[in-house]
Amino acid sequence: MPVLLWTDALIFLLVAGLAGFAYLVRRHPHLAVPWRRVAADPLAMAAAVVLLCFTAVAVLDSLHYRPALPPGPNGEAQYAAEVNSVLDRALAVLVEHQEKSYSAPFATRLFAKEAISLPDGRTVRDYPRLAWGGAHLADPDRGRAGDIAGKAGLGLALGLAAWLPAAWLVRRRLAAGGARRAVLATLLAVCLVAGVLAVLAPYYHVFGTDKVGQDVLYATIKSIRTGVLIGALTTLVTLPLAIGLGVSAGYFGGRVDDAVQYLYTTLNSIPGVLLIAAAVLLMQAQLETHPDWFETGAERADLRLLFLCLILGMTNWTGLARLLRAETLKVRELDYVIAARAFGVSDGRILTRHILPNVQHIVLISVVMDFSGLVLAEAVLSYVGVGVDPGMMSFGNMINGARLELAREPVVWWQLVAAFLFMFVLVLAANLFADSVRDALDPRTRSRT
Amino acid sequence: MTAYLLRRLLYAVPILIGVNLLTFALFFLVNTPDDMARLHLGVKRVTPEAVQKWKAERGYDKPLLFNAGAAGLAKVSDTIFFRHSLAMFAFRFGASDDGRDIAGEIKTRMWPSLAIALPTFVIGLAVDISVALILLFFRRTYVEWTGVVALVAMMSVSSLFYIIGGQYLFAKVWQLAPISGYQDGFNAARFVWLPILIGVVGGIGAGARWYRTLFLEEAGKDYVRTARAKGLSEARVLFRHILKNGMVPILTGAVAVFPLLFMGSLIMESFFGIPGLGSYTIDAINAQDFAIVRAMVFLGAVLYIAGLILTDVSYTLVDPRVRLR
């Protein structure tokens, strides 16, 4: 039974919107000019490939369903209470491979000693073998390195095999140049990493396991959806508010302008984290007192994520609204707007036909620039205790759960490293792409170079 | 000047009233005192008497806006809005949920916060500007390109990793600093240098990039070209012309955030166990102590507006072309 959570619907809407925008850009040459500059930038294209991969994971993780159970006594269909996604299905082998507790990356034994009862009745304290990690090895202490190397080699070959058709497609679609080389190289890197992980993950815990024995690689991949959602949806849900208020303040002036300015100065004057914390605390209390709003735990976590996006957006829209107001003030005095007004064109039509198309670059720049900051903010907010639902897998929750383990001896480092690697790649790609988009779209930087 | 200042202060009043109304709406209308009491006493199996008692202890049992039962002025003043919201204008924050005086706590906790936030800010400013200037000096060379990419990479690392990594390396592995804690007076230096270092390093990415764009904008102006045409050395152009003129937006921007330093840093303080306002706030959030969060929101707004006014004043001091009327 397919399940459509709120955030799923929004993420599909977002993807559809992006596709629609791409179609629009292709149809109108004047819109395509700045994007061609982005397409010619090797760094930006490499970043775009990485971002697309992360988005693909997020979309796969948003196709939710409730698995069917055997039919009930009267033959009616029954469904499990848990909500799974297509990604969970693809990574089922990782979900299944549950250990008892911590184990290091590629380990074959648990991280802590336990009492093991031997077949002859004695008990010894030793590191027990893992249930899944390296379980196929007869003698884990000797055969491991060779086995890992062999499997990694196989993974590299598989990755290369997957890369070849993709590379052929890219070579046909993109013009030769630095950008194409960058895309090919990034694709190769992604394919090789994915190939190695795909071959090794069923046999070993590549990033180790966490406190309850869950595979860290699985948790990291699941965290991607949360990060991408927060980065993308937050700006999306508040875009109407920012555009509506910012543009109308600039266009109509007078009372409207005063009211909007008052509104965003007031909101701005409250320190961001505190406003978010206050709002999230209240939202939490509301969810606590209204358990009838959701059926499953997943819906509850999802609702909380959606509210978090809304709250983050509420503190974020002021910056965009201010920029839009300033730009609209400039645009509305331009000759073509005055001419349109002289012809008796209505306000609504001037706004949609003349003002909005000429301030859209500001909206685009702000959306891509905000993305990375929001992904980072999620981690901090989860640490403060006002982030996503504690049961939801996210980078912030991973870091939060792992940071206390640094005090252990020897150190449990792999959770932090895994979260760091994935988060760093995502945010770095977003930052590089955003820089390029800003350089291409912003007339100020365009004239300077 | 005095007239201008007075007018700016008057402008601040409606904004503060807005903040006040907003917090009142959030904390008392959306979330009624009954909800709060139930949250604190546990959602299940809570008797109405217990809720009443909890509310009475904290003065939340009064009507929200209008007390019809009271006489005269008390009709308005003996309400939650007057007692708990308007009172903040007089900096009477009342008591926290565990019964301690919030204003007193703020006064003592302000200093540890400042001991970290102020040096971080000043040193960070100097380091960021230096890095930006060095990159500008090596313009259109590989040094600049690598530097800019390194800045983007540094910017892409979550601040949590800077803190966790720094604390782990310096305090645990090399044991150069205590892992957490704080002492008053000169002993504080032992505890604060590591948070300051981490704060400065973590801020370089975003900070230096921001100052670099400011300087680049300045470097593209005509007077810079004239200075170069006169045959001045690159270093002289950089320090005497670009830096000096670039300092105007930098200084005024710095003044704007200056008052907010009192609020401290939420994460840094809680990681290093510094008894400042940041950790105070974070503890309040975790304990769901709405009274403290409300007080901190209001205090933050006051400091933000103070920063805005200071910015305008500093413009006149740094840039003689700006006159405030």
Description:
The complex is a heterodimer of chains A (449) and B (325). By secondary structure, chain A is mostly helical. Chain A has a domain at 218-445: Orthogonal Bundle (MetI-like fold), CATH 1.10.3720.10. Helix content of chain A is 70%, strand content 4%. In chain A, strand 6 (114-117) and strand 7 form a beta hairpin. Chain B has a domain at 109-288: MetI-like (MetI-like fold, Orthogonal Bundle), CATH 1.10.3720.10. Chain B has helices at residues 2-30, 33-41, 48-58, 74-77, 80-85, 102-137, 142-155, 159-173, 188-219, 222-229, 234-257, 266-272, 277-286, 290-318. Chain B is globular, with a radius of gyration of 25 Å. Chains A and B meet through helix 9, helix 10, helix 13, helix 14 and helix 15 of A and helix 1, helix 2, helix 7, helix 8 and helix 13 of B.
Quick recap:
By secondary structure, chain A is mostly helical. Chain A contains 16 helices and seven strands. Chain A has a domain at 218-445: MetI-like fold, CATH 1.10.3720.10.
Descriptive keywords:
A: 449 residues, mainly alpha, MetI-like fold, 3-stranded antiparallel beta sheet, B: 325 residues, globular, transport (chain A)
The CATH architecture category of the domain at 218-445 in chain A equals Orthogonal Bundle
Beta strand count of chain A: 7
Give the integer mean of the pLDDT values of chain A.
87
Strand content of chain A: under 5%
From the helix content, strand content and strand pairing of chain A, which structural class follows? mainly alpha
CATH H level, superfamily name of the domain at 218-445 in chain A = MetI-like
Provide the residue-averaged pLDDT of chain B: 85
Instruction: List low-confidence stretches of chain B.
Output: none
Taking strands numbered 1, 2, ... along the chain, how are they ordered across the largest sheet of chain A?
Answer: 1-2-5
How much helix, percentage-wise, in residues of chain B?
over 70%
Tell me which CATH architecture of the domain at 109-288 in chain B applies here: Orthogonal Bundle
CATH homologous superfamily grouping of the domain at 109-288 in chain B: MetI-like
Content of β-strand of chain B = under 5%
> What best-fitting shape of chain A do the alpha-carbon axes yield?
globular
CATH topology of the domain at 218-445 in chain A: MetI-like fold
What is the class of the domain at 109-288 in chain B in the CATH system? Mainly Alpha
Major sheet summary line of chain A = 3 strands, antiparallel
Helix content of chain A: 55-70%
